[in-house]
Design goal:
Elements (H helix, E strand, L loop, with lengths): L3 H6 L4 H12 L4 E4 L1 H8 L6 E5 L3 H7 L3 E5 L4 E6 L2 E7 L1 E2 L2 E2 L14 H5 L10 E2 L5 E2 L4 H6 L2 E2 L5 H7 L3 H12 L2 E2 L1 H9 L9 H12 L4 H11 L1 H5 L1 H4 L14 H11 L4 H9 L4 H4 L1 E2 L5 E2 L3 H15 L4 H13 L11 H11 L4 H13 L10 H15 L13 H8 L5 H16 L6 H12 L7
Parallel strand pairs: 2-5, 10-11
Antiparallel strand pairs: 1-2, 1-8, 3-4, 4-5, 6-7, 8-9, 12-13
């Protein structure tokens, strides 16, 4: 069996080990630190590599051929070795990194323990040198064995240093499936207000990692329990404790958490599951018979999802896809008297690319109800079968499927480019959805001429 030091050293790729060796050869102590050490100890491939060193940023840039000054005011330089980005940061101190502008004759003494003591959580406060020797002055390896996320030192002080650490702690719980140490959890609740001063895009980035994690439910429950949810997603907080109806065993919030866990770890799917019922507290009505209803919650929910994700600075493609899934999450219902044209219109509204994620969301919604058996209802299964037959028949379901395009409409109607052409194309699609046989160039050109008469009197 290999010695422990050698086993650890062999898990470090050559480019990263080369940076450690080069720094030490130049007289600068250097250690792998943070999440990469944690991952190595767990036997997981690290996502990124961080090195703490006694070298100053300018010394690092002088020592290596390819560097990027990614955070000089924090003492960080990214070294590129064989295409691998490696973050190299000067040892942390109470005032940031050790400053080289010191009085003459004062010796610069790098302090690894001081650096580790300023990190966020003990499982991220371990170091590994080039020889595979582990430095763990704060008990990180024990917490790793105990599957515990615990703040380094005084948790309140750690959170005061950087409020985003509140969400990082939740994310670690969600990614690793660990538990949160009690005092760290209490401090999270007391310091939840610090999130009010964190940039929305940083909060959004942490939320994305939490919902895509291996244990998103643990993360979401922790967000609610500590009061963090209230600070950046108060709309979801309204669903906590809200009873639904005979179709659901769980409250709106409990159902939401379960739905997120039941969809694959795709960002848009997980966000859609998180927000699919966000409007239920705001659409609740109670009938004369005492039954609870949430009419139109998918319509209001789509608007709310767009507002929330825009507020948290998610990119437009993600916002649009999530909005569409929330808007359509009730669509896969089959009425016995549903005509073929209605199925085609539904397909056109949903969009072929959205059928699979919408079905996955529908299955998660159903599984998270606590009252339904099987992945889909019989009606949904019949509807999907009808949709498959329509798709196999190559029906026109979008403007791009029409036998004519905007240029054809302009040519036969004399209309200039503009909104009128778009309106005519949409009306042509409506006609083809009703009667697929109309999707022939001559038929559509004749129909376009007739429709043009309604557009500002032009023929």
């Amino acid at each position: 069996m290999l010695p422990a030091k050698l086993r650890l050293r062999r898990r470090v790729p050559r480019p990263t080990a080369g940076v450690l060796v080069s720094l030490e050869a130049a007289g600068h102590p250097a250690y792998l630190v943070g999440g990469c050490v944690r991952d190595i100890l767990q036997g997981r491939p690290p996502l990124d590599w961080d090195i703490a060193t006694g070298a100053l940023p300018e010394q690092v840039m002088h020592l290596f051929e390819r560097t990027v000054p990614t955070g000089l005011k924090y003492g960080t330089v990214t070294v590129i070795q064989s295409g691998v980005p490696i973050q190299v940061t000067t040892f942390r101190s109470e005032t940031g990194y050790q400053d080289h502008r010191r009085p003459e004759g004062v010796t610069f003494i790098p302090d690894l323990q001081a650096d580790l003591s300023r990190r966020d959580f003990t499982i991220n406060a371990m170091a590994l040198d080039a020889r595979g020797c582990l430095y763990d002055p704060l008990g990180g390896r024990d917490d790793l064995r105990r599957r515990l996320v615990r703040a380094v030192g005084d948790p309140r002080r750690r959170f005061d240093e950087d409020g985003l650490r509140l969400l990082r702690g939740v994310r670690l719980v969600a990614e690793l499936g660990f538990e949160l140490e009690a005092e760290t959890g209490r401090a999270m609740g007391e310091k939840a207000h610090l999130l009010d001063h964190i940039a929305p895009e940083r909060i959004g980035a942490e939320l994305a990692r939490i919902v895509q994690s291996a244990h998103p439910g643990k993360g979401l429950v922790l967000l609610e329990r500590t009061g963090l949810l209230d600070r950046f997603l108060p709309e979801l907080r309204a669903g906590v404790g809200l009873i639904q109806n005979e179709h659901h065993v769980f409250t709106v919030w409990e159902h939401t958490v379960l739905a997120v866990e039941h969809v694959p770890p795709d960002l848009t799917l997980r966000l859609a599951a998180l927000l699919h019922d966000v409007a239920k507290p705001y659409t609740l009505t109670v009938g004369d018979d005492g039954r609870r209803h949430f009419f139109g919650h998918e319509l209001l929910g789509a608007d709310m999802a767009e507002e929330i994700l825009t507020r948290l600075r998610f990119g437009r493609p993600v916002v649009d896809r999530v909005r569409h899934l929330v808007r359509q999450h009730m669509a896969l219902h089959h009425a016995p008297d549903m005509k073929e044209a209605a199925v085609r219109r539904l397909l056109a509204r949903i969009g072929q690319d959205a059928i699979k994620p919408l079905l996955q969301l529908r299955q998660a919604d159903r599984l998270a109800s606590g009252t339904k058996q099987g992945p889909v209802s019989e009606g949904t299964a019949r509807l999907l079968g009808r949709m498959e037959r329509i798709l196999a028949g190559d029906s026109a379901l979008a403007l791009r499927d029409l036998a004519v395009d905007g240029h054809d409409v302009q040519r036969v109607t004399g209309l200039p480019p503009g909104p009128a052409v778009g309106r005519i194309l949409r009306r042509l699609l409506d006609a083809v959805l009703e009667e697929p046989a109309l999707n022939r160039r001559q038929c559509l050109e004749d129909l376009a001429r007739r429709l043009a008469a309604d557009e500002d009197g032009r023929v």
